[in-house]
Amino acid sequence: MSSLSRRNSGQEFAQPPVSAYILAYGLWFFTFLVGLLVAFAVRDLYQMAMVFTTWDRYAVHLFNQFGVVALAVALIALVVASEAYYRHGVPKRNVFTRFARVIGLLALILTSVQTLRLALEVIAGAVNLISVLILVVVLLVYAWTRTILHRHSSSSSNVQRQTTLTQAARAATLIGAAVLIVLPIKFPINLYDEGLALVNGMRILNGAIPFRDYWAIYPPGQSYALAALFAVAGETVLVERIYDTLVRIALALVIYVLAAQLLRSWQWALAPYVAAAVLLAAATFYGYAVFPALLLGFAALALAFRYVDDSRRRWLVGAGVLTGFTTFFRLDLGFYTAASVGVLLILIWLLPPDDSRRWRHRTQHLLVDVTAAATPALLLIVAFYGYLVSVAGFAVMVDNLLVFPATTFRAVRWLPYPALTPDWSIWSGPGGVDVRLERMLGDYLRFYIPLLVYGLSTLLLVWSAVRSLRGGARFARTDVMAASLVVMGVGMFVQALSRYDEIHVLPASLVVVILITWLVRQIPARQWDRPIVAAPVVIVLLTPVLLYFVSPYLDLAEYVRRHPPTACFSTLPRAGCVATLPGQEEIVRLLDRQSPDRGPIFSGLLRHDNVFVNDVSIYFLAGRPIATRYHELHPGVTTTRPVQEEMVAEFATHKPEWLVLLTWGNPNEPNASRFNSGVTLLDDYIREHYRKSLTTGAYELWRRQSP
User: Fold this and answer.
1) Cα distance between residue 326 and residue 300, in whole Å
2) CB burial class (10 A; 0-12, 13-18, 19+) of residue 249?
3) What CA–CA distance (Å, rounded) separates 551 from 545?
4) Alpha helices of 399-476 — where are they, by DSSP H?
5) Could you tell me if 437 and 547 are in contact, meaning their C-beta atoms sit under 8 angstroms apart?
6) How far apart are CA 63 and CA 71, in angstroms?
7) ∠ CA(663), CA(667), CA(672), 5° rounding?
8) What is the rounded distance in angstroms from the CA atom of residue 506 to the CA atom of residue 470?
9) What does the alpha-carbon distance between residue 554 and residue 391 come to, in Å, rounded to a whole number?
10) What is the pLDDT of residues 568-623, one digit of tens each?
11) 164-211 pLDDT per residue, tens
């Protein structure tokens, strides 16, 4: 009998299979790679530390050579010791435990090294978010190894210690992800989209009425919120940025609560929370009205989820109130929120978690539920939009909010969708590997991964519903929640189709990260111990992790490196230290010197028969009246004859002394915005009454000539 089959410490082991040794040597090779990574990190640390010393260069060189030898010896010792350690662990069937112990030790060393590196970066005043990410990942690896080892120790003290550490880690994750959202707050101003939010708020603060006194195509909820903030805290870009940042943090936290309800785990909910926080932090469209709309919409859905669990209608009333407020910011997102809550209620009626009620009673219950949710929503909508209709007019409201977005906007702003197969020709283009991969696969994956996730989720839910109708396992409460999230996600994806790009597909991405976690959660815990299940799942998850976490995190790190939140990038009072674009500050200061009476100005383009965007933000930075109701130059609107006639009449009345003309050309997107309308009334008027005074950056300043 082999010695491996004899009794040892009261146990008898059969001859280990060859696959056990293959696994052991696979783990051994992986340990070698991790050890090599640790060795490089240690060497990088002491090379960085040498920068802070006053040693002679020969001493530095000698220390470096000695360090290389010492690391090589340590790596060889690791290779030899781990090989014997794992090999001897095969007969005892504890190779994986030994692997966790060794990896935990290496992770602890790497944690110390990375902590010291961060300390040096703090001293140098150049903290890199990549270093922070590496430290967090290493800490997660160490926590994983401790979890594996704690499974073999069930004492109450260890359980209590593990619970305390878990709670501390959860709190640190919540705070850390929220901090990430704050970091890019000094990112340069967005001259068009953010400019619209700032100027609309400024105009309302100065007494203007949306739609009546200025042209807009979105509900004015964001504009009224910013006007109120400007009245209290002052008119600066930083005030708007702080408000927007707080909204994003609240949105990420609401996603965390909603995910925890769906996943039945506060720990699992950390994954979509962190991904959502990174996506929101890397989205530099400040003042975007979609963010407060998403906050209210997801919060409404979270309250509806609460109703699924305890059946108290006060949660439905709250969901209805929040749905109504959502429409103040975006009509489409308010509709998708209402549809999601409606689907949730219908599924509870059709596939109840219990069979305690008959059809008639369930139908009565459904009608009361719908009334509880719909009544407050409709009352708020009627009150808000009734007021706007009374001051702006019904026809204008319908045209701006419904007709124009469904017709002209789509024609002039639509962008093509990715083809079914990636454009491999991009791979041979300029740039590094990472740049070419992002160009080739970024938009492609952002388009098709949501469709794939929604499709898989729907198939799983349909299978569960059919099984329930046939008398099998009941349609679970979490299935009802997941179905409503699928409806919400599909709605978010549909709203991105009018102009498909990264920022417009972001809302759908936020739903996707929740549903991906839910799909993974459906795999039974015992299946994770089977490599044939765990390995493919982990490999498949690499793509969404790279797309929804790693890529935006790298973008965020670059934003913060260029514009750290502690720096001041502009001396303009209304900028609030937020970085401006080249030439903007000079234009504003020149206007202050040349026109101290602070008369009206106009921000336009070199030609207005073919427009894409203008610099709307310059109105806010200058803090001056606007010579026309069309501060937003939109293709299909200000390129038409009736609107240009109206603008020329306004110019003749207000006689603005200065025009700020942006010299950027039209990017010629593949939509109707690239076509010339042939209407030159405004350009003819400008060239007849104004002359170019100076050029700075991408701007030309034109002055009105005396008659």
Assistant:
1) 9
2) buried
3) 9
4) 404-406, 408-413, 433-469
5) no
6) 12
7) 120
8) 38
9) 47
10) 999 999 999 999 999 999 999 999 998 888 899 999 999 999 999 999 999 999 99
11) 777 888 888 899 999 999 999 999 999 999 999 999 999 999 999 999
Identify the CA nearest to 647 among candidates 629, 632, 620: 629
Residues 6+ apart with CB under 8 A from 684: none
- Taking each helix axis as running N to C, give the angle between helix 221-233 and helix 193-205, from 0 to 180 degrees, rounded to the nearest 10: 70
Direct distance between the N- and C-terminal alpha carbons of the chain, in angstroms, rounded to an integer: 113
In contact, 31 and 78? CB cutoff 8 Å:
yes
pTM of the full structure: 0.88
Residue 7, SS3 per DSSP = strand
Instruction: Name, in order, each residue with C-beta under 8 angstroms of 380's C-beta and a sequence gap of 6 or more.
Output: 321, 324, 325, 327, 328
| Tokens coding 703 | 């002055």
User: CA neighbours within 13 Å on the CB side: how many for 158?
Assistant: 10
Amino acid occupying residue 692: K
Q: Is the dihedral of CA 527, 533, 536, 540 positive or negative?
A: negative
Contact indicator for 35, 27 with CB cutoff of 8 Å: no
Q: Which residues contact 93 (CB under 8 A, 6 or more apart)?
A: 13, 16, 20
Task: Fill in the DSSP letter of residue 69.
Answer: H
628-673, pLDDT tens digit by residue?
A: 999 999 999 999 999 999 999 999 999 999 999 999 888 999 999 9
Distance (Å, whole) CA 163 – CA 166: 5
Place of tokens 């994986």: 96
- What tokens were used for 598? 């602070």
Q: What are phi and psi of 603, to 5 degrees?
A: -105, 110
| pLDDT at position 356 | 60
Q: Which residue has the tokens 């080739």?
A: 440
- Evaluate whether 315 touches 340 at the Cβ level (below 8 Å): no
Which residue from 361, 180, 153 is spatially nearest to 283, judged by alpha carbons? Answer: 180
Q: Which is more confidently placed, 128 or 32?
A: 32
Copy the structure tokens of residue 331.
């009509």
Q: Is 451 exposed, middle or buried, given 0-12, 13-18 or 19+ CB atoms closer than 10 A?
A: middle
DSSP 612-674: S----HHHHHHT--BSSS--S--TTTTTSHHHHHHHHHHHHHH--SEEEEE-PPP---SSGGG
* Contact predicate 35/75, CB 8 Å: yes
